[in-house]
Specification:
By secondary structure, this protein is mainly alpha-helical. It has a single domain, classed as Orthogonal Bundle (Chromosomal Replication Initiator Protein Dnaa, Chain: A). Helix content is 71%, strand content 0%. The chain is built from 7 helices and no strands. It has helices at residues 7-19, 26-37, 41-45, 51-66, 73-79, 85-101, 103-126. α4 crosses α6.
């Protein structure tokens, strides 16, 4: 599968940041996971337990808990295919452990944090410097 950060992904993600000033926009977290892990959005919300899909899913949980205002575990579970809170807590713990043990996963998280900061800054400039949480 080709990893390609397309103009469409960029526009969806940028529009989401501009319209959602609290938690990280769902589209931004999901699109970044699709691009970095070469999985589909359908994979992220599916019941699949393939290692790469689980890792990508844990990244999405990490992003939704650690960038911007944290989303609740219940909300994240609903976004990721109706999973229960305990499953999301487990995925979050997995992501935190991966950041410590896997330099590539940690680098993906760092790139996401930087991209999110740039999008928030751009959105602030486009809206006249409004505070974006």
């Amino acid at each position: 599968m080709t990893r390609k950060w397309t103009a469409e992904l960029h526009e969806q993600s940028h529009a989401a940041v501009a319209s959602d000033q609290g938690p990280i926009p769902i589209d931004l977290a999901m699109n970044w996971a699709v691009w970095e892990f070469a999985v589909s959005r359908a994979d992220l919300v599916s019941k699949r337990r393939q290692a790469l899909v689980v890792l990508a899913r844990s990244f999405v949980v990490w992003a939704m808990r650690n960038l911007g205002e944290p989303r609740s575990y219940a909300d994240i579970g609903a976004i990721l295919g109706g999973r229960d809170s305990s499953s999301i807590i487990h995925l979050h713990q997995k992501a935190l452990a991966q950041r410590l043990m896997d330099s590539e996963f940690a680098a993906i998280c760092t790139r996401m944090r930087s991209r999110y900061a740039r999008f928030v800054a751009q959105s602030g400039a486009e809206t006249g410097g409004a505070d974006h949480g």
